């Protein structure tokens, strides 16, 4: 009887505990997501009290690299005669990129202003060669200026050609990678800066990236998210502007999205990733492609839509970025001192096939030349970034400027570069623990409590039923046994053989 009471008591205990577990798990189903979201909100807003996310935003303590590929021209003399250019890709030449924010100022309207600085350091171990490697590319000072001056009076063009000859400037440059990147001495540049100040983007040496090193990207003012987390990292203004004046439509001139480093949390597959790029002088937008996992963290991959660099004829909203050439080119001359410069995807990926036909040596493919960002959708923090762009120069023969010879009109690839980074090391571990593992554990806990509770209740019921069945069997012996016959049946077993 004592056993029966013990089992009944145990059943009641299991039912109570199971019921509490189910109740707690059910409460977590409704309350858990709120707690998790609240934790994410507190961690991703721009707030100096948030050690992890604020440090990631301010100093960007992740490995970041710029890989540069040159399109080395192998037939410059033939190009001057009107033949198709042939190029060979040289690279990568890899530079470690340091980025940090300075002049950080918080404002009363939940915004913060800052300037982001950048420095580049050559990484020979990651490169195919040294910065002393020599390559041949178009001379922007000659071929670019020639296109800019083609509609000027003929005497002006003759004077320009004479100036090129005076300073011994030809249509192509054959120089070391380091000089082409960061600047080389040019008497023509010195002359122009002295007598036509402001005509060139640099007052010192002339190089493709001379204005990038030890520089900043302008003053960004972005929302901190403290009043509305959906606006965190979104740009309020750039250099005090809400829009630029480089393009021909109000929509194209708008400064939309973030500064291109982090995005608001709680992204879905329907979300887009808008950002403003001072280097491209415009806002751009990436779209969802597929889910994935990056270093143990679930991510969404966002990529450039096929319409990003489409011309106005193929994609009417882009009409404001014209005058356009073939699809696949963004004319950035208006924000590059009117130089005939175009941005595209590397190797003219996703561009009009006509562009590929005008240059030998190009072979686009998505894996090597497509740009993407792998982002943790719950927090809006990129886990892996690969932004790939190509710099092109429109070259052609200009009457009166003999340096241009008989060059056929062609958009000539000069370089393409990839800016890539990924979260790793202690920062990754802290991020994964705080913003991925703990929320995941909390999410699983609700189901674990419900499952354990239901199992406890089911076990208690089975224990109770089993106890009742045994009790009944003890109180009501089997009807098949006749008590009166038991003594007579047992007697023979007690007799000896002699009896």
UniProtKB/TrEMBL annotation:
MF-aspect GO terms: lipid binding; low-density lipoprotein particle binding; scavenger receptor activity
Compartment list: Cell membrane; Membrane, Caveola
Annotated region described as Disordered, given as residue ranges: 475-499
Keyword annotations from UniProtKB, A to Z: Cell membrane, Disulfide bond, Glycoprotein, Membrane, Receptor, Transmembrane, Transmembrane helix
Top-level taxon of origin: Eukaryota
Keyword check for Repeat: no
Membrane topology: Multi-pass membrane protein
InterPro entries: CD36/SCARB1/SNMP1, CD36_fam
GO cellular component: caveola; cytoplasm
Keyword Transmembrane included in the entry's annotation: yes
Swiss-Prot/TrEMBL GO biological process terms: cholesterol efflux; cholesterol import; plasma lipoprotein particle clearance; recognition of apoptotic cell
Residues spanning the membrane: 12-36, 444-465
UniProt record similarity statement: Belongs to the CD36 family.
Protein name (database record): Scavenger receptor class B member 1
Protein species of origin: Sinocyclocheilus anshuiensis
Taxonomic lineage: Eukaryota, Metazoa, Chordata, Craniata, Vertebrata
